[in-house]
């Protein structure tokens, strides 16, 4: 699989009717480091993550997934996404969800499950229908699913949601391992202090604009 080394957003605008969610965002996301996106409710964080993840089309502006280029279809195969709506099937078990995602990426489902089970410490809860799992358990399965194909761009929207202290510690270990592996990891969080010390770059949004960009 070809990998993304850098994502460059230039002049990205996204409007929903009369609402301007993003008003000309310039940003560079680099591989091998954690980029933290911060901002108040409604400042455009999830919209920006959605655009980086190719699930939302910008109204104007451009995205370049270096060295793959601007074709979102090519980039999509190497993106891992953890979102509010974990995009998983509630009637399937966690294991089936992970195996399905592995199959989607052309991986051996059994092998992918064994690896995910060990890495994310997925206990017997992962064998029950997802809808019967707690929020924290679902979040762990969603993370396992998002990372099953070793994506080079990892997008995590509010990844601490529903996690207890041990869960947050486990999540941070996964974030560190992904950065170490060389992935570009982007986190949107209302708890930025949890990530700040390991974030090599920060983007602070205010009403659709980047007001602080530090690395
Ligand atoms: N599908 C949509 N249709 C209409 N307006 C939208 C849509 N998605 C987002 N918006 C608007 O765009 C703006 C930015 O929303 P976005 O969800 O990106 O903000 P956010 O910073 O992630 O917010 P939060 O911290 O509350 O999750 C908001 O004013 C929101 O109401």
From TrEMBL:
SUPFAM superfamilies per UniProt: P-loop containing nucleoside triphosphate hydrolases
Residues in ABC transporter domain copies: 7-215
Keyword terms: ATP-binding, Nucleotide-binding, Transport
Molecular function per GO: ATP binding; ATP hydrolysis activity
A matching Pfam family: ABC_tran
Domain of life: Bacteria
Keyword Protein biosynthesis: no
Keyword Lyase (UniProt): no
Classification via InterPro entries: AAA+_ATPase (IPR003593), ABC_transporter-like_ATP-bd (IPR003439), ABC_Transporter_VariousFunc (IPR051782), P-loop_NTPase (IPR027417)
PANTHER family: ABC TRANSPORTER ATP-BINDING PROTEIN ALBC-RELATED
Name of the protein described by the UniProt record: ABC transporter, ATP-binding protein
